[in-house]
Amino acid sequence: MANELDGFNFEQRHGKARVRVARVWRNKSDHIHSMVEWGVSISLLSDCVNSYVRDDNSDIVATDTMKNTVYVKAKECSEQLSAENFAILLARHFTSFYKQVTTAIVKIVEKPWERVHINGQPHEHGFKLGSEKHTAEVTVQKSGVLKLTSGIEGLSVLKTTKSGFEGFIRDQYTALPETRERMLATEVTALWRYSYESASSIPKNPLYFTERYLDVKNSLANTFFGPPKEGVYSASVQRTLFLMAKAVLNRFPDISSIQLKMPNIHFLPVNISSKENTIVKFNDDVFLPTDEPHGSIEASLSRFWSKM
């Protein structure tokens, strides 16, 4: 929140970061348990300038209070809900309950607990830890204006063929050979913004955004891999990134923009040779995995009316 103080522009916010909370829901009718584990970070823009300039803390919402609020609001959620809905619930509480708070920003990172299947059957109360993480961030103003973003962190994908890289700029510093046959691996970070602009316009289904997250993740992966039998050729990470982003916007009309980061994680063909001869002949079957240095590729795609 910006103010003018003593001839200077002054901006401030405060909050509580990395509040860890787990919530379990037990369905008494079928004995099925559901659970989530969230890391919650809260940032409040509020009228508490006096705490900075006059030793007056009377307008501060204590960060310990924010932490306790997370646990109380989780307890009040009698039905399972998405990370996005919980973030909206928290942000609306802070902007409506405290007159000093003008804007609340809530970010949640969901730990990827997945239900266990035993002999093909879903376990009633057993879970295992997965890989990629579901993220959500909401900004809610006191007026009710809302900005909602969801995302994926750590979606690791790899294919052993149907990838190449050729026709790039060559100069005196270029050593990379051109190829139409290589492994392609990356760890996708995705952020997408929804078109909803107020809490009243959010879908009523409390798990809508969880389902949308899974749908977006599947769309990204399916575009990366292509059909199960023949796959799809990738001329570059850039081309694949664009097709993945375009697939999401084409399929989901309530997503207004998407940003993708896709580092090119290299699998280098092994070559063991001496000045005299090749000691072992490898035919693109043994590789050296490397994660640094790596190519860094990122881009965003948005509809013309998007505010991203």
Report on the structure:
- The chain has 308 residues and is α+β, with helices and mostly antiparallel strands.
- The chain has two domains: 1-144, Urate Oxidase (Roll); 154-308, Urate Oxidase, CATH 3.10.270.10.
- The chain contains five helices and 16 strands.
- The protein has helices spanning 50-53, 63-76, 83-97, 208-225, 237-251; strands at 2-5, 8-11, 14-26, 33-46, 101-110, 113-118, 121-129, 133-141, 146-159, 184-194, 255-261, 267-269, 272-273, 278-280, 287-289, 298-302.
- The strands form five sheets. Strands 3-4-5-8-9-10-11-16 form an eight-stranded antiparallel sheet, covered by helices on one side. Strands 1-2 form a two-stranded antiparallel ribbon.
- Strand 8 and strand 9 form a beta hairpin.
- The longest helix has 18 residues, at 208-225.
- The radius of gyration is 24 Å and the shape is globular.
- The two termini are 21 Å apart.
- The model has no long low-confidence stretch (mean pLDDT 95).
- The active site is at 16 (charge relay system), 63 (charge relay system), 266 (charge relay system).
- Belongs to the uricase family.
- 5-hydroxyisourate binds at residues 63-64, 165, 182, 237-238, 264.
- Its EC number is 1.7.3.3.
